[in-house]
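Researcher: Sequence recovery benchmark, item below. Answer with residues only.
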């Protein structure tokens, strides 16, 4: 009997902490995904900047300066597009995370409601057949004085 109680307690504890474990896992996965994307973005931006610095270091005359200026404008356009794409991707990741979070909260709420219902049912004593309430009888004794 004691083993059953311990097993039941362990199961209840596992069920209690399961939503928190799922939440932590979801948040960790999202953080890892966002961080990885940001690292890749920073690498792209750094490479663009390094390429521009190399190109600037190779300027030798007015014509190469004019070409550099034209490429600089193209690079700024490319950078602008890349930043918009990155913002869009980060926004999509955030919306996906929000949807997963809402789904997790809904599942957790449903589980908690079920657990509360089970606990409420377990707390109710077994109902015995309805007993007849004792009838009050009035004993009127008419004493004559």
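Model:
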């Amino acid at each position: 009997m004691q083993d059953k109680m311990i097993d039941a307690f362990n199961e209840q504890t596992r069920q209690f902490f399961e939503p928190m474990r799922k939440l932590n896992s979801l948040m960790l996965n999202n953080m890892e995904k966002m961080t990885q994307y940001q690292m890749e973005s920073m690498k792209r931006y750094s490479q663009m900047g390094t390429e521009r610095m190399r190109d600037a270091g190779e300027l030798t005359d007015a014509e190469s300066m004019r070409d550099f200026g034209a490429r600089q404008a193209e690079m700024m356009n490319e950078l602008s597009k890349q930043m918009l794409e990155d913002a869009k991707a980060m926004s999509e990741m955030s919306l996906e995370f929000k949807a997963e979070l809402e789904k997790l909260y809904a599942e957790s709420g449903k589980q908690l409601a079920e657990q509360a219902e089970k606990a409420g049912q377990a707390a109710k004593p077994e109902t015995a057949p309805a007993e007849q309430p004792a009838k009050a009888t009035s004993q009127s004794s008419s004493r004559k004085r």
